[in-house]
Amino acid sequence: MGMFLPAFIFAGGKIKITDSTGHTAVVPKYPERIVFVGRASIMVADALYMFPEAQKRIVGTGATNQGRGNFTAVIDTRYGEKVHLERKAGVEHVAAARPDLVIMKNYLKRDLGNPVSSLGIPVIYLTLETPLLYEKDFTVLGEVFHDPKRAEQILSFYRNMSSSITTRTTNLAARPKVLFIYHSARDGEVAFNVPPRNWLQTRMVEMAGGDPVWVDNVSGKGWVKINFEQIAAWNPDQIYVAAYKQDVKKVVESLRHSPRWKALKAVKNNKVTGFPVDFYSWDQPDTRWILGAAWLAKEIHPELFKDFDIKKITRNFFKELYFMKDSVYNREIKARLGW
Length: 339
Hints:
Blueprint: E1 10-11, E2 14-18, E3 24-28, E4 34-36, H1 41-48, H2 54-57, E5 58-61, H3 71-75, E6 83-84, H4 91-96, E7 101-105, H5 109-117, E8 123-126, H6 131-144, H7 148-169, E9 177-186, E10 189-194, H8 200-207, E11 211-212, E12 224-226, H9 228-234, E13 238-242, H10 248-256, H11 265-268, E14 272-274, H12 289-300, H13 310-322, H14 326-337
Parallel strand pairs: 4-5, 4-7, 5-6, 7-8, 9-11, 9-13, 13-14
Antiparallel strand pairs: 1-2, 2-3, 9-10, 10-12
């Protein structure tokens, strides 16, 4: 990952920051009333709370519960004091929190960011979609929290872990055929979905030493629905499943016992596996993606990564990046993982 430096200048007690999207905002040098808001707030929250000043300076939070509990409430001892904004909160709700800086995902710029900016409230956008963009976004947050040293510590964790994976997989002579699917069930209708080429889930499979079988057959900017016939045609060696609104373990068991699925190579090899989930699934472009990549590498190439102690790596992740004590980790993370 290459280093990214946002453009900033000091002027009248304020700084000018250019975020990873190219948007420039003039913000207080020490913003004291930070609000994050909008869809995908879990990803924004999980990035912000890696900085020790976040608890004190965040006054308003977006929705951060995907159905398995609220991780933000666990890591923020002041969570009960915050203004809690709904997922579809409008500009008037944001303004009511009296922020001096609002942070949101980049794709909310037109519908929410611009209206907030029109009130004279500075807005910073985070992308958080690829390893390179994580590098850029955390460098920006180092400026927001006036703590570039902490930003560098965070990025060093990601760089070191990424390097420990890719140095072993980049020149592999043989890569198993891997399928990643997002399993959804709405109104009783089951759907299988695959990510586009440029999404983090695809990149994780490549980093971990797999050959993503779907990338040459899909296009577009979002999830692509596929049917079982397409999965059977690919007949991958290994299948990895995410299920954001369901119990992924139960989903995987149902697939393994499905008469149609039993003919698949991955089922015969006992290589249909659900992604780990604590509060959030590890395949998402959340800060946990690095854990997902490490776990996936060991799943795809167990001998190549036999020295990877995923339990130890996970505990260390929450300790170093979220200042989490062992007792809290055991109760809130380990218990959810079932490890």
